[in-house]
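sry for the spam today, last one i promise. struct tokens for design, 309 residues
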């Protein structure tokens, strides 16, 4: 019996090593992030629309989130809360697929399970991924902002895009190919800040919760880490988001300097966090939904491939 037990030990060790090796070499499909983000966008789109309306508020438009929701429901019905959904989904398919895909690929190449990346390295990888996502998804972001804000404009100023593809065609025909890159630099800066504060912070918060609390790699941990990542992302991106929205919504040429000057003259430093509450109320649920859907994708992938968790 004693010899049998001794001979079994190397087998157990070999099995453990094999399992670890499998965990280290998992390459999830590139599109997982875009798929999870699109699913989250269908849940949180009304909150995104309200955030844009508050950031673009003029005249006697409602000043609060609840007032904006009531105004939309009264004038446009429940479907009004989903204005621009097609552009929002196009944005996730382009922007989120790119940033998540590149970030996960970089993590796979430069980190291992036994040697996780440091927070600065995660931020660097996420920043690069965010810039790439911002460039690829910029045109969809322009459409998203325009379609969400369109119903709030006077009838004579509305663009009335039927859907994202119609808007893409009309933008190209009426404003030229350069319109695809309207606000590309503030958008790329926001995408870099968003990805660094959202993806990198999620990985770090998840790691801290698993190492220093009784929580394991489960739904409770994913929810907690994604909630904290949502708070970080909303705070970091709020000022950039306001500038990006103003630049993209404009029809004429408006430089970032002109937009900043106008915002400061009208509202002082308060403009930096204009719409922060609806931004967090959108980013919080969106971040939670995105990472829970993403972890669900990963779990199903592991199960389909016969990989032990």
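last one done:
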């Amino acid at each position: 019996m004693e010899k049998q037990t001794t001979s079994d030990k190397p087998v157990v060790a070999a099995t453990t090593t094999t399992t670890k090796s499998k965990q280290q070499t998992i390459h999830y499909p590139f599109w997982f992030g875009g798929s999870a983000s699109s699913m989250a966008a269908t849940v949180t789109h009304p909150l995104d629309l309200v955030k844009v309306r508050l950031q673009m508020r003029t005249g006697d438009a409602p000043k609060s989130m609840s007032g904006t929701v009531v105004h939309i429901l009264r004038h446009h019905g429940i479907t009004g809360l989903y204005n621009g959904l097609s552009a929002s989904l196009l944005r996730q398919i382009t922007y989120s697929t790119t940033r998540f895909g590149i970030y996960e690929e970089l993590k796979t190449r430069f980190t291992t399970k036994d040697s996780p990346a440091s927070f600065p390295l995660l931020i660097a990888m996420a920043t690069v991924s965010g810039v790439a996502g911002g460039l690829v998804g910029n045109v969809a972001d322009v459409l998203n902002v325009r379609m969400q804000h369109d119903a709030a404009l006077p009838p004579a100023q509305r663009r009335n895009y039927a859907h994202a593809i119609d808007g893409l065609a009309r933008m190209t025909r009426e404003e030229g190919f350069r319109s695809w890159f309207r606000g590309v630099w503030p958008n790329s800066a926001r995408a870099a800040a968003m990805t660094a504060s959202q993806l990198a912070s999620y990985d770090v918060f998840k790691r801290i919760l698993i190492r220093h609390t009784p929580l394991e790699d489960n739904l409770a941990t994913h929810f907690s880490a994604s909630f904290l990542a949502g708070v970080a992302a909303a705070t970091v991106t709020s000022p950039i988001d306001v500038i990006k929205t103003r630049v993209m919504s404009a029809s004429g040429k408006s430089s970032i300097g002109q937009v900043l000057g106008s915002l400061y003259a009208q509202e002082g430093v308060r403009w930096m966090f204009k719409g922060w509450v609806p931004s967090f109320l959108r980013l919080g649920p969106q971040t939670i939904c995105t990472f829970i859907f993403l972890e669900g994708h990963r779990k199903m992938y592991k199960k389909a491939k016969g990989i032990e968790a």
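The first helix runs from residue 2 to 24. ok im logging off now
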